[in-house]
Design goal:
The chain is of the alpha/beta class. It has eight helices and five strands.
């Protein structure tokens, strides 16, 4: 076996990096033609209507999706493209005490559902992020939100799985690769945040 040199390792790394970027571009290209963008625009309108009515927006997910949930909530409470008043949004995944207490006292499957039932009100909007579409706590959180009269939104991979059945709106990224799905869900989330910001605080052309 030939010894690996720095040049060989670098060359192999570049092949991998190019392949991953090509994969990501292919997923984004597919999103142009499969209705994802139309869904994102429709969801942005739902969020704007909820905020104008005095309701709030909540996000939740696990792992990388929990970070994306916090990221998107922060885009609304802070700012996205320009300065304006903060919007009522938060991430249930960020509540460490609640997540660990509920997980310890009940089960991890209940960590979002119990928060939703405690904090949610009819007319609020709940976003559940699950790359597989089958995360038990995300599915239960969406179910609880629906029972509470909230609008439910899921961001998932290609098949949607259980989330598809419990969400009023389910955006399914056309990929089953976890990394590509997470990247694309964040892109969709950013698009929704930008449209919401523009809808709530329009600027002159």
């Amino acid at each position: 076996m030939a010894s690996m040199t720095v040049e060989n390792v670098t060359a192999h790394g570049l092949v991998t990096a190019r392949a991953r970027l090509s994969d990501a571009i292919a997923v984004k290209q597919a999103m142009l033609d499969d209705g994802v963008l139309e869904q994102a625009v429709a969801i942005a309108h739902v969020v704007v209507a909820a905020l104008r009515a005095g309701n709030k927006i909540m996000f939740f997910g696990n792992g990388g999706s929990s970070m994306d949930a916090g990221h998107l909530a922060a885009e609304l409470t802070g700012r996205f493209a320009y300065d304006r008043p903060g919007l009522a949004a938060f991430s249930l995944s960020d509540s460490t005490a609640a997540v660990t207490a509920i997980g310890n006292d009940y089960s991890y499957a209940e960590v979002f559902a119990r928060q939703v039932l405690g904090l949610g009100r009819p007319g609020d909007v709940a976003f559940g992020l699950s790359t597989s579409g089958s995360s038990a706590n995300v599915v239960r959180g969406l179910q609880a939100a629906r029972r509470a009269g909230m609008v439910t939104v899921a961001l998932t991979g290609a098949d949607g799985r259980q989330c598809l059945a419990v969400a009023d709106h389910c955006i399914r990224v056309p990929s089953s690769n976890t990394a590509r799905v997470q990247e694309a869900c964040l892109h969709v989330g950013h698009t929704i945040c930008e449209l919401v910001e523009a809808g709530m605080f329009p600027r002159s052309p």
